[in-house]
Amino acid sequence: MEYEPVIGLEVHVQLNTKSKMFCSCGADYQSAEPNTRVCPVCLALPGVLPVVNSAAVESAIKIGLALNCEIAELTKFDRKNYPYPDLMKGYQISQFDVPICHDGWMSVQPEDGPEARIGVTRVHMEEDVARLIHVDNVDGRSGHAHTLMDINRAGVPLMEVVSEPDIRSSAQAEAYILKLQNIIRYLGVGTASMEEGSFRVDANVSVRPVGSDELRERVEVKNMNRVRAVVRAIDHEIERQTRVWESGDRVEMETRGWDDVAGATLIQRSKEEAHDYRYFPEPDIPPLEIGRAWVEEIRASLPEFADDRRTRFQDEYDLSEYDAALLTTSRATADYFEEVVAARDLSDVDRSAFAKEAVNWVSGELARLLNAPEGPSEIDQTKIKPKQLAALVALFQARTISNANARQVLEEMWSSGSDPDAIVKERGLLKVSGTDELLPVVREAIENNPNAVEDFLSGKETAVRFLVGQVMKATRGRADAGVAADLLTQTLEEVKSAR
Questions:
Q1: Are residues 253 and 121 part of one domain?
Q2: What is the value of pTM for the model shown?
Q3: Do residue 365 and residue 402 come from a single domain?
Q4: 3-class SS at 438?
Q5: Do 390 and 257 sit in the same domain of this protein?
Q6: Is 17 left (phi over 0), alpha (psi -120 to 50) or beta?
Q7: Are residues 379 and 419 in the same domain?
């Protein structure tokens, strides 16, 4: 029997608000000393009252609108029974039956496969938990000697994005995750970094006979800190569950952890259901009314997302699909590119040619510098302003400077922030392309390299390349190689005719 996977994803998105979800403590826990971003509210001391962070609510609405969700006019918070030690009050403030966003969708396009539409069940607000740090025994004994708790993260705003079980492959799951990360970053509401823990994915996986519409027992897979780990874990679980069903056994509904080294999932506990969490309305937070005017105001503030921007770049700048996709992976990169192009007052035809040249520099040489270990890694943090890069691209496009010298100028701009025109003038890098300037250098190269001249005269036209190199060396790379080659060939032909 042939089986197909049924996959749903639960993604926790940590928001980058200045303060926590229900108190005024700073949410910048990652850069803070342990247990320094705490107050009576996130310490769960008796008698405290939570206050909802309006910026987090706005971010939740932004996420919901970006995912084509309906935004609730009235929403509420609930208490979720939480028996683990990383929330001191013994429950988590979350949302159960009335989430702020519901009934959305996202279209995804895997690299190898057709486009798919994945339903989004809900986006709801809740709080993050504290961090537990397990300290191993120093004498080699098994188990942990003790566990430390850093409460700084407790209370940081979380949005949980829950998909419908519409995903049918690990490739679709990967495309969904990558697109959701891109949306979060375009919105500017979070870093969406799995490595940092600000974007955490749990996968609910089951398999069923192809053609069936039943939803069989599912397994929730946790502890995946990379997109690639999610893909591997899903593929492993599909294979494991298929073997179980084919052997005549039943898949148990449970939570399993992903072991990246072993490449396998390991059982953690039986899967909880909603009744296990014993939800009930949060008595200390009144229901929230979400005004329609506010929602429309937020909708109007949404950025142009990557899909639409990619299409526009292809149409407006005549870019290839590959180049447009490369630029729009990051909103900052796309913004930077458009500022580079806008810095030149050009006709549509000239602008298209300039844009194609600008892509090469933004996604090529500038990207190389950004990926270097030293210096900033974000394009909007570089010393090179878009207007400056536009000037450099214009110099190179006009062949005023050579490719090698243009790269040197870019590196100087990277380190000093200087304008390219000033660097070119200071270093004397303007390309030598006039006949009057180049002809004496060409004649000198011919006089100083008689063997190459004889090679040319005997029919080895490749000797011209060697002589071009000599001209480039004499002019310190400033000569126009094409003009130099033409002058060399013309002069050598004259020598040949004279013999």
A1: yes
A2: 0.85
A3: yes
A4: helix
A5: no
A6: beta
A7: yes
